[in-house]
Design a protein that fits this description.
heterodimer, A: 176 residues, mainly alpha, Rna Polymerase Sigma Factor, Chain: A, Arc Repressor Mutant, subunit A, 2 domains, 67% helix, 0% strand, B: 215 residues, alpha+beta, Immunoglobulin-like, 7-stranded antiparallel beta sheet, 4-stranded antiparallel beta sheet, 27% helix
C-alpha cells in the first residue's frame, strides 16, 4: 500500500530520514516537467528541484498540513524555479532571430523550431504569467485546479494565461 | 501591445479546449499554429532523472541528525495536562495568583500585557487581537508554538474581536492567525512582516525585557 504524504512526513520528522526518498521520487516525477518548463533548462531545473527538496526537508516541521505536502512543496519549488530562471537566462529577444523561409517545406523542422521559439519567448513573460501558462499547457490543469493549487482566483489566472498567449502571438507573429 | 497582436475571446476559449464555433478561419489557423508550437515544446520537456533522488538523499544524510526527533518534539510541544478533580481548585487558585502578578492589560495586539511586571525579565505577557466577526474559531500559531495550528485558541469578545494573552520569551517571534482551522493570515495590524519562504507572510513581534519593541 502506498504511504500517504502525511504519514511519510510524520515518520521523517520522527527520525525515519530515509523515508524522505519516497517524497523526492513522488514529486520529482509529478513536478519534473513543470520545473523544466519553468526554468527552461533541464540541468538547471534538476538543480532547482534539488534545492527545493533540501529546503523542504530543512523546514519539514513547518509543513502545517503534512497530508498536503505536495501543495506546500509546489510553492517552494516554483519559487526556486523562478529564482533559477532569473539567474541563468539572459533576457532574450525572439525578434532578433530570423523567421524560417517562407518556402520551408520540412514541416517537422519548422515545428521543432517553433517549439524552441516558445521556450525563448517565455522569457518575455512575467513569472506569474509563465507559471500560469505552464500549469495550463504543460501540466494540463483546469483553471479550477490551478486556483486550488495557487490560491489565485480563476479570473486572474485566465487573465495571466491570456496575456501569456497574446505575448507569444506577438513575439512569434512571423512564425504563426 | 495592440489589439491586432491579441487573440480574441473566442480564440482564447478555443485554446482553452472549447469548440472553435464561429472562430474566423485566419484566427483559428493562428491558434492552431500556436497550439502546435506549444505541443512541440512540451514534447521536448524531459523531467530530471532518478539521479536527483540519490543526490538529495546524500545531502540529507550528510546533515546533522534532525533535532526534531521524537524526544525533542515531545519536549518542545505544548502538552495536555490532566488534573484530578480534587486538584482543580488548587490549580485554579495558583493560576489566579499567577495572573494577578502578571496584571494583564487590554490593547491592540500584539501589545505588552504586563506593564513591565512580568514574573521575570525573560518572559513578557503579550496580547494578540484579531477582528474576525465571521470566524467560528480563531487560534494563534507561531514560532513559539512550533507552528501548531490549534495550540493557542483565542477567545471571542464583543464586536467580533478575538484575543489571547501569552507569556513570550524575550526575543523575536513570528506568528499568524488561523481562522476556522484552515485559513492562515498575518496580523493585519502588524507593521513587521516577513516572507515565510513558502508563499505566505508571517507577522513579527519583537519582545524586549520591558515589553513589545516592534510589531
Amino acid at each position: 500500500m502506498e504511504l500517504s504524504d502525511g504519514s511519510v512526513v510524520r515518520r521523517v520528522l520522527d527520525g525515519e530520514v530515509e523515508l524522505y526518498r519516497v517524497l523526492v521520487e513522488r514529486y520529482r516525477v509529478k513536478f519534473g516537467r513543470h520545473a523544466v518548463a519553468l526554468v527552461g533548462d533541464r540541468d538547471a531545473a534538476a538543480d532547482a528541484m534539488q534545492e527545493a527538496f533540501i529546503r523542504a526537508y530543512d523546514s519539514l516541521d513547518r509543513c502545517r498540513e503534512p497530508d498536503r505536502f505536495g501543495s506546500w512543496f509546489y510553492r517552494i519549488l516554483t519559487n526556486q524555479c523562478h529564482d533559477t530562471r532569473d539567474r541563468i537566462r539572459p533576457h532574450a529577444d525572439v525578434t532578433e532571430v530570423d523567421p524560417p523561409a517562407a518556402d520551408a517545406t520540412d514541416a517537422e523542422l519548422e515545428r521543432s523550431e517553433l517549439g524552441r521559439m516558445i521556450d525563448v519567448a517565455l522569457d518575455e513573460l512575467t513569472p506569474e504569467q509563465r507559471e500560469a501558462f505552464v500549469m495550463k499547457h504543460v501540466d494540463g490543469h483546469s483553471y479550477e485546479e490551478m486556483a486550488e493549487r495557487t490560491g489565485v482566483g480563476v479570473d486572474a489566472l485566465k487573465m495571466r494565461v491570456h496575456r501569456a498567449r497574446d505575448t507569444l502571438r506577438q513575439k512569434l507573429g512571423a512564425w504563426l | 501591445m495592440s489589439e491586432r497582436d491579441r487573440f480574441g475571446a473566442n480564440a482564447h476559449r478555443y485554446l482553452d479546449g472549447a469548440p472553435h464555433g464561429d472562430l474566423a478561419p485566419e484566427e483559428r489557423r493562428e491558434a492552431e499554429r500556436l497550439l502546435g508550437a506549444v505541443q512541440a515544446w512540451t514534447e521536448g520537456l524531459e523531467p530530471p532523472t532518478a539521479a536527483l533522488d540519490d543526490a538529495v538523499m546524500a545531502r540529507i544524510r550528510a546533515k546533522a541528525p534532525r533535532r526534531a526527533d521524537r524526544g525533542w518534539r515531545w519536549l518542545v510541544r505544548p502538552q495536555p495536562i490532566r488534573l484530578r478533580p480534587v486538584w482543580v481548585p488548587l490549580a485554579a487558585a495558583a493560576a489566579l495568583a499567577f495572573w494577578m502578578l502578571a496584571k494583564p492589560e487590554v490593547g491592540p495586539g500584539p501589545t505588552l500585557a504586563t506593564d513591565g511586571a512580568a514574573t521575570t525579565v525573560d518572559t513578557v505577557f503579550v496580547r494578540f487581537q484579531l477582528i474576525a466577526p465571521d470566524a467560528q474559531v480563531v487560534s494563534l500559531a507561531g514560532s513559539f508554538s512550533d507552528w501548531t495550528a490549534d495550540a493557542y485558541p483565542m477567545t471571542q469578545e464583543d464586536g467580533g474581536v478575538w484575543s489571547i494573552t501569552l507569556p513570550l520569551p524575550v526575543g523575536e517571534h513570528q506568528y499568524q492567525f488561523v481562522i476556522d482551522g484552515e485559513r492562515w493570515i498575518p496580523d493585519p495590524r502588524s507593521h513587521a512582516l516577513v516572507d515565510d519562504g513558502f508563499g505566505g507572510t508571517n507577522s513579527v513581534v519583537i519582545v524586549g525585557p520591558r515589553g513589545v519593541v516592534q510589531s
